[in-house]
């Protein structure tokens, strides 16, 4: 763990509080009409009238609410299996929407309007909600979806009760096709793409990137990065535009791109960046440490939730105008840079507080945009994030989104380990990174707090790093060099929380091993503690051992990868 002072933790907002934000609207009643949905009970045996994300919707014969067919949405860890239907409606009119659902966290609603949900329906349960159209609204998108990692949901007998719209008043015009699709860069596992904007009679709302027939990314801008690809492999991509009514354009020109060779690692990304924390432990001036040691990068801790899905330094200090921005400005003026770290061991974190991957990506983006960042670090720890599969997947999904929206951004995940490599939760994080196409650049282990004060910290660190390297090889199919190029280490200088001791010589040997094996990142917790206090035990502002001031930082500055 990255140690921090204890303080009262704000309770994490429950999923219901985060998601149940829409309430049924009330309006004067309107004469009802027959159900205006197409294929409302899925009795055609097809998804006619419906469109489901990721190809995850299907029609099944069991379990059903009535008739012989129902919808099954196979929600995965990266896709909530959202199924939609756009219908023509009349302006300024009240409609009643209902449906029968079965499963965990199933949602029914109208895009941009009211919604309802159930956290758990062991058998079919009816959901109902009403909404009123806007003064000029002529179409409405009805949706059903499950929730990430919650498994398959079922839906049947969906009803939208109200008058149908005029047959010619809805938006049925598709956008033009995006143009000039081209590749702007590649690594051994990713391809970056850009294109020229499409046009639409109402407005383009987003773009879908396809690899062959499979949709692999959805973005709002005119660029994207597709990760999770195999090295030295050719891929063909196209892009389609869509509007708010669900109309999709024709495909752009195809572009075929080959990824780089497997030995490319992270395109030369190397970083010696010890943690510096402005909210704790008598923080030194960053430029004082830079001048004394030659270090250029700092990992700046910690970005947390200031309430809900809003990012702030330590959950309290604003992103701009405070000590943290002043530190970043000073470091950059001295020729260095920073990588902000999100999370840590305790505090009110963004991962559990943001409703989904898109919302969390928005919180990350607020920090990326505030400083024009080259890299971010997600310090994923404890039961609220690291040992929570739903939040793990949310973090990975968010990192995938910000990489697509910020070409060239490097993403780092930092987590605990055993002496022989990742724990079961660490293995899951790596496996899900591959499954979700998160394209993580560096997997950083924290090789300390093993629970035994007599641990040989050099041997334990090397054992953990080699275990991570082997896991990366088996998961991604990489060779040794490529796997090492995705490995990071973040130790704890001096006395750890478990009374282990990493000596100056230990850290020198670890740095030398890291250079010899060309890993990607070397860090430690923390610069605040990089001062001597022999026999002092675990301290916030010194290491608990005999050392010169900033000695661990000086050693780290010698990391070249």
From TrEMBL:
**InterPro entries tied to this protein:** CenC_carb-bd, FN3_dom, FN3_sf, Galactose-bd-like_sf, GH, GH18_Chitinase, Glyco_hydro18_cat, Ig-like_fold
Q: Which keywords describe this protein according to UniProt?
A: Carbohydrate metabolism, Glycosidase, Hydrolase, Polysaccharide degradation, Signal
Q: Where is the Fibronectin type-III domain?
A: 177-262
SUPFAM superfamilies listed in its UniProt record: (Trans)glycosidases, Fibronectin type III, Galactose-binding domain-like
Note whether Hydrolase occurs among the keywords: yes
Do you know which CDD domains this protein is assigned to?
Answer: FN3, GH18_PF-ChiA-like
Ranges for the GH18 domain? 269-561
- Cleavable signal peptide: 1-33
Query: According to the lineage, what is the superkingdom?
Result: Bacteria
Q: Where is this region: Disordered?
A: 164-188
**In what ranges is there compositional bias, type Low complexity?**
170-188
What is the protein name stated in its UniProt record? Chitinase
- State the organism named in the record: Kitasatospora paracochleata
